[in-house]
Amino acid sequence: MDETAGQGAELGLRLPLFPLGSVLFPGMVIPLRVFEPRYRAMMTHLLAIDSPPQRLFASVAIREGYEVGDHGQQELYRVGCRLQVSEVSQRSDGSFDILATCRDRIRLREIDTAGQFPMGVVDLISDQVVPLHATAAAGQTVAEAVSRFTAYRRKLREVRGDPMPGPLPQDPEFLAWELAAAAPVTLPERQELLETTDSIARLRLITELVTRETAIMSALPSLPATDLARTAWSPN
C-alpha cells in the first residue's frame, strides 16, 4: 500500500530484525524485555556500537505465529519500523530490559537467519507529500479526526481511563501517528494504518475506526469497545 520514499531514500539497509506481536508507529517509545538467546546476541551486538544513535534495529509485526520459537513458525508483515535503543539495563540472568524509540518506517525486503540473530534487508519509506491544493481539505480532515477522537475519549472516560492524557498535536503527521497509537483497533487495522500512504488518508481511516468504536460503546455501555478482541503490546 505504501511507496518507498522518493529521491534520497535509503534502500537496502541491513539491520538486526526483532519481530513482535504488535504494530508499532513512529514516535512511540516502547519497553521490551529481551530474553531469547538470539535477541540477547542482537543486544550484545548493538551495545558494542560506540555511537548510541547508531544502535538501530528493525521490527515488523507477526501476522501469524509467536514471538518466541523457531523462525519457521512466524509469518511476518512487511512494513514495520526502525527503532533506536535509548535505554538499556542487563539482568543477572543475561536478559535485557530496554526502551526503544520508533524512528521511522521500513519495508522488509529480505530476511537472513544464518547468523546468531536475524538480519533484515530493509528500505526506509516515508509518507507521500500532500499537494498544496489539498490544504483546505486537509484542515477539515484534521478537525474531523480531532472531533471524533475527542468524542471517543469522552465516552471512554465513563468506563475507564483516558487513552491519551494531555493535548493533541496540531501537526497532521504527528497527530495521525499519535491517534493511530491510541486508537482501539485490531492488529490488522493497526497494520493498515501503518501502511497508509499519507497522514491525511491515515486520519480519515482513524476517524472511521474511532467513530465505529464509539458507536459500539454506545450500544454496549457495560462493555467498552477496547475490551473486544484487541491486541495488546507484548513485552518481548
Taking the alpha carbons of the first and last residues, their distance comes to: 28 Å
* Helical run tally: 5
Portion in strands? 15-25%
Q: Which percent bin holds the helix content?
A: 25-40%
**Count of beta strands:** 8
Oligomer: single chain
How would you classify the helix and strand content by structural class? Answer: alpha+beta
Which regions have little confidence, pLDDT < 50, spanning 5+ residues? 2-8, 224-236
The helix-strand sequence is EEHEEEEEEHHHH
The outline comes out as globular
Query: What gyration radius follows from the Cα positions, in whole Å?
Result: 19 Å
- Biggest sheet descriptor: 6 strands, antiparallel
Query: For the residues shown, what is the average pLDDT?
Result: 83
SSE layout and pairings?
Blueprint: E1 13-16, E2 29-34, H1 37-47, E3 56-59, E4 62-64, E5 75-76, E6 79-90, E7 96-112, E8 119-125, H2 135-157, H3 172-182, H4 187-195, H5 199-219
Antiparallel strand pairs: 1-8, 2-7, 3-6, 4-5, 6-7, 7-8
Helix pairs in contact: 2-5, 3-5
Structural summary, described in words:
Helix content is 32%, strand content 23%. By secondary structure, the chain is of the alpha+beta class. The strands form two sheets. Strands 1, 2, 3, 6, 7 and 8 form a six-stranded antiparallel β-sheet that branches. A two-stranded antiparallel ribbon has the order 4-5. The N terminus and C terminus are likely disordered.
